[in-house]
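Hi X.,

You mentioned you wanted examples for the new student's onboarding notes, showing what a folding record looks like when two proteins sit in one file. Here is a clean example. The first protein comes first, with its sequence line followed by its structure tokens.
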Amino acid sequence: MLPSNFIIESGSQTKDQLVDEVDKAVFVGRFSGNTEVSNGNFSGAVKQGFLMDKGKISYPLIGTIVSGNSYKLMKNVSGISKSSKLLSLGGYPLFKVL
């Protein structure tokens, strides 16, 4: 799985529906980091990140780092938005991960 050929198909929820169901979360608008393709591990800086509390944006996050495993992350997707953006590195709707 490489970013240049990875496309997530649109789902059935609106952005508001995805967000309304969230008690506490981090919204990641952009991610700047690296992924090890052989094992799926990733780490990097959150860009355009916000702390969300009870479905509302509480405040912006600055200097936030995230890490995890992209293969495990994909198994924990609990919602995907109807709208999607096709970018030069693939297509991405909003999605929620538990």
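Then the second protein repeats the pattern, sequence line and then tokens:
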Amino acid sequence: MITTNTELLSHAQLRELTRELSVELARVQRRMALAADETPADDRELVEHTEHQQALAVQREQLTHALDRVSDGRYGACIGCGAAIPFGKLLLQPDAERCSACATTPVPAGTPPPL
């Protein structure tokens, strides 16, 4: 059973976390735009530049996915076990998908989230 975010977080908490996710997404998108304008001077800088762009793309994907979970009511529920992710953890890591217990347990590739 999937728990909805209104059962996990108060409306004020959800608003605060949604704002944090949106602000961070905008920051990452600005950094990506700036990085796209950079021209690496040599091969070493090219590798660093590429790695930086890839890391930003992963961040953007994680933040977008978290905002999607807000929209469909699943934000704040662990994708591993369905339990509530504590508000304090979400404040520190707004794009968190797993509770602390599941975050330390490896998940086999292709494992669907619980229903």
